[in-house]
Amino acid sequence: MKLRLKIWREGGEFPKGQFQTYQMDDVNPDMSFLEMLDVLNERLVAEKKRPIAFEHDCREGICGTCSMVINGYPHGPMQGTTACQLHMRHFKDGETITIEPFRAKAFPVLRDLVVDRSSFDRIIESGGYVAVNTGQAQDANAIPVRKEAADEAFNAATCIGCGACVAACPNASAMLFVSAKVSHLAMLPQGKPEAKRRAQAMVAQMDKEGFGNCSNITACEAECPKEISVENIARMNREYFSSVLGSETNA
Amino acid sequence: MKLDGKVPAGSLSEKWTNYRSTVPLVAPNNKRRIDIIVVGTGLAGASAAATLGELGYNVKVFTFHDSPRRAHSIAAQGGINAAKNYQNDGDSVYRLFYDTIKGGDYRSRESNVHRLAEVSVNIIDQAVAQGVPFAREYGGLLANRSFGGVQVSRTFYARGQTGQQLLLGAYQSLSRQISLGNVEMYNRHEMLDVVIVDGKARGIITRNLLNGKIERHAAHAVVLGTGGYGNVFYLSTNAMNCNVTAAWRATKRGAFMANPCFTQIHPTCIPVSGDYQSKLTLMSESLRNDGRVWVPKKMEDVQAIREGRLKPTDLTEEERDYYLERRYPAFGNLVPRDVASRAAKQVCDEGRGVNQNSLAVYLDFNDAIMRYGRSEAHTRGMHNPDEGTVRQLGEKVVEAKYGNLFEMYEKIKGQNPYKTPMMIYPAVHYTMGGLWVDYNLETNIPGLFAIGEANFSDHGANRLGASALMQGLADGYFVLPYTIGQFLAGEIRTGPIDPDQEPFAEAENNVKGQIDRLLSIDGSQSPESIHRRLGRIMWDYCGMARNAEGLKSARQMIRELREEFWNDLYVAGTNEEYNPELEKAYRVADFLELGELMVVDALDRNESCGGHFREEYQSEEGEALRNDEDYAYVSAWEYKGWDEEPELHKEELVFENVELKTRSYK
Are B141 and B87 in contact (CB under 8 A)? Predict the structure, then answer.
């Protein structure tokens, strides 16, 4: 396959950031998208040019490191697929492909396609856990958990923290990410005691990081590579409003 | 030098209990005055850092990732073992201990393995309390499945994402300690040297991956949870950034590297498809619960399949060779990984591999789909369901169990594994070898600890499935937090460690010097291209099968490649910026040294055991031939310098509780 790549370069010789165009003449349709970029980078290195910086690690769609917008879609046009699991057979010979970093105020660009997502870590630090120390646990089967609840909690917990939901949202809201964690823990008996406090603290931190508000566009769900449902946002809103209006702590 | 494993006295099942009751403790007021560095945030590192923080120590934790949640433990699919015996199928701590010792082909330390089996049950309790959403039955209790090399169901799982869920549990506990101020997090910081002051590990040198700043960090003890070195093979199931640098730099400072040649080649990975390939993808071992492995019996069928004239589904039962079931009737498709990988290699070497280059076998779910479908139909009261309905129902059941794996396969291969068997081939997956540690998980350098895959301790020559998660979390949650106290109890009067003293300066200069050297070569080859060539050498000569002649020539080739690296490397950019090329360069430099040591170790071990298969030492049926008389020891290698022969130290393995037997799964 022949492809034309328009790639965002930022930092180094491109201090303000700009698109650069690269021609690829020999792309194998069985390659993954990132392997195609590897080939381009090896070529750039051979020409003693700076390779394109992009983040990646597991290349199995689970670590959440890869983060790029391909033809306007976070992780590319395939549903339920991270950029590392996207294969070139889904593109057309002769196509021009535009590649940009995730764009959001709370995800500053560090270089080319690499962004800083440490705001997500700070949101988890604010309350995305069950406060239990090592060694305090009782027998794992002491509390039965309804299978349906466990399955739903699991579905929410499969979020990989990549930030595609933020990149997809016109408001750059992190509601899907935050709500996935809030509902994962709230749906389990072990997470229940702190559920309200958790929702308040995580929402407060999300606002502090500069993420936008949710206006129910649901692009986050459409672009989520793990297909996390927006039902989680509804669950979190319930948790949050009942905590603000109820008697739990007022954060 | 005789290595002392510091195994406590007493009977096997009482060692750990006695140890815990008598190990010196550090009082809470003193813990606040003790600093600990933890490197790595995978299952072992994150769980250790969180637990040490909870105990009241001052912890600094480092990862080269942008976030601690990215560590490669996240990708573990199948499950985690624990001797809970929830299935009432005869499991016990002893049985888990025994299976692990036997699975490791009698090359691990009894006391460590027994302790691992003991604490396995606590891990499940802890994870559930953290909100890890394990799979459950309709009654609300935890579900289990089976893994290779055992005859009980003791594996807990969260669909195909068990590692992810356990890591997020540990990450969340770690995040809580960060928010409480007990743990200080340094992301995008890579450890490039360990600092030894008066014989004790007292700190590390790191590089800030965003701006290249070289920093000194001091502490009373250093814990390495930096994972395995499978990427020395270039192609492996490890993440792209997994590397040996932290462990290798410790080796160069005097820590011993143990059993480096013990590599796990996992039987069920998606076969290599082209030269551009950057990594291999695992298909979880749990699939062997339901998948049947086969190749055609007749060469003409193999040929027809390769040429596309025949589909695998066209072959009748009689035309297929279910070679694992044929050779190992007792364990069938669930033989341990080393055995399954070798068997796949044998049929492929015979030319019966089912892809173009004869490097693939089938993993077939048809029987399972039909079996589950019939059972499901029966449950629904359908008495004479047609085949289509049964298949449909069966596919649903299989989807619920392995859906994400099937999806992943389809994305990569573009084939639907519900309709046609998967193609699989063995690939490098895990390294049993690692830094030598004693019962305290302390290396031979006082104050330097190694946990998780980074140490060598529990898996012998072959790791059983679902035991890596168990060991990582056992070390981090339940073992190291106790055993480190034995060292730190002697440090309560030491006072803060000064990062301005000479050994820190020397280590910092060492790191800077190497980076300057790498950047100044200005040759023509990329780190990636040299890494690829190293991987090829390792796979061909130190992979699934090894022999003395091949190993000797591999050593020479690695040395030549290393020369080439240091004379003709090209690293784009500078140190003072975000520069993945430079990161790759120093990691490959370390792989080039480790690779040679692996070959030396493989050459030293004149026997076949577990993942180490020396062609000269095999039985008539082609099974591994162990030599307990001469090789029942741990090889702990001391680095002696560039181009010097490493020195071998032996820890004799003493088996007081199990009888050494030929490992049979027949």
Answer: no
